[in-house]
Amino acid sequence: MRLKRFNSSKKRKLIIGILAIGIILGTIIGYSYYTYAFFNTSKEFNVINGTVPEFKAGDIRLAYTINGKNVSGIGFPNKDYGFTVNDVQCENGVSASWNESEWSLKLIETNKQDLIKCSIDFITPTMSDYLINLSKKDTSIILQEHEETEQTSTFAQTDYRYIGENPNNYVCLEADGTCEEDELYRIIGVIPTQSSENGPYENRVKLIKLTDYVGQTAGNTINSKSGYGYSWTGNYDIKENDWSKSELNTKILNEEYWTKISAYQKYIGPAKWYLGGVNSVSTMYIYIDERKLDVYDNVSRKTSVITNIGLIYMSDYGFATNGGDSIDRNTCLSSNLNQFWHNNRDCSYNDWISDGYIYWTLDTPYNDFVNGYLFQDNMWTNASYSVVVGIRPSFYLKSSVKYLTGDGTLDNPYQIMVD
Asked: 227 near 213, Cβ under 8 Å?
């Protein structure tokens, strides 16, 4: 009996041992096979939204840089907005490549790691390309078509403009890591523009200062947001209807203001500003008038200037409307612009440039004794050279300026960069 019990116990132990060894061997073989099969086979996954599928073996962590810099305020870069990949680097012997057409990461692992870490460096698009791509999804950016004018070619018949009551079109030109109100601008749109008299047209982003400029004043002001302003000429002794000679242009904007924004000059390029006289009432035809060659009684005048800083056109104000429930945008654009406030309030209430204060515009009228147009009570009107009102400087970014980060909201404005 004792011997029998001993043999039975021994047999059970032997069976248990064999089973245990089998389980261990099976686990090792299966694990090795899985590891080999998984990590020696190319794996691709889509990361448009910055997410990756769960892995059964190990894990993966993705980091990304933009133009070699760590940035905040942006989700995982999206192909639709013009990003491209410059480089992919993974740690601990993991190799990877980027599938541009599928916008996916392809991993090839030679030495399994419990945690795979990869970093992707993206190259940003130009700011103009970014906004054009964004217009496919953002309904506040609209493609605007124009007729060919006397001073523009067929290359300047299409632009992209921000419209509506308060679109996400804020830009911060900060230089020190913070963004003050005086450093905030808003995007008018992507406008085909020349940087020299006969230069090629380039898609360039046009900005307007968020608030009016406060500097040395030329006299008492009328309803300016800051309480300060300038006359059309910048000097009471100059009574010419000629923006090219106006000290508001030559001294205040392109010397005083240009010097003040010295930290941002790297973003800004010279542009052609049109000086045609306005003799129309609707936005669509005002745009054409602004680009006429002869402004008064067929007398040849200087009808454009090349400068860094200018003012917005009346048509910029008109094109910024989205219309409303009773009057749609197309009706606004074909209606009398100075009726936006009095009769067509759907047009002015849904126009982000409109803020109730008075500012000069660049348009020069036909009348020799009237030196400019301004916005007054959210409508345009003409005024003499001696009137002192606010100015909101405007300029074009260089075509090479790139998008860096931000979503265009006031709390997270766009930030830009130059190489």
From this structure: no
Is the C-alpha dihedral spanning 62, 63, 65, 71 positive or negative?
positive
Please check the confidence at residue 337 and state whether its pLDDT lies above 80.
Answer: yes
| Residue found under tokens 């059970």 | 12
Alpha-carbon distance of 35 to 165, in angstroms, equals 57
- Nearest Cα neighbor of 177 from 404, 409, 419, 407 is 404
pTM, 2 dp: 0.80
Q: Which of 50, 83, 99 is nearest to 108 (CA)?
A: 99
Quick one: residue 260, left, alpha or beta (phi over 0 = left, psi -120 to 50 = alpha)? alpha
Give the N- to C-terminal CA distance of the chain in Å, as an integer: 92
Beta bridge partners of 62: 118
What SS3 state is found at 285? Answer: helix
Q: How far, in Å, CA of 415 to CA of 417, rounded?
A: 7
Give the mean pLDDT of 380-405: 84
Residue 293, amino acid? L
DSSP label of 134: H
Range list of H helices, 40-121 = none
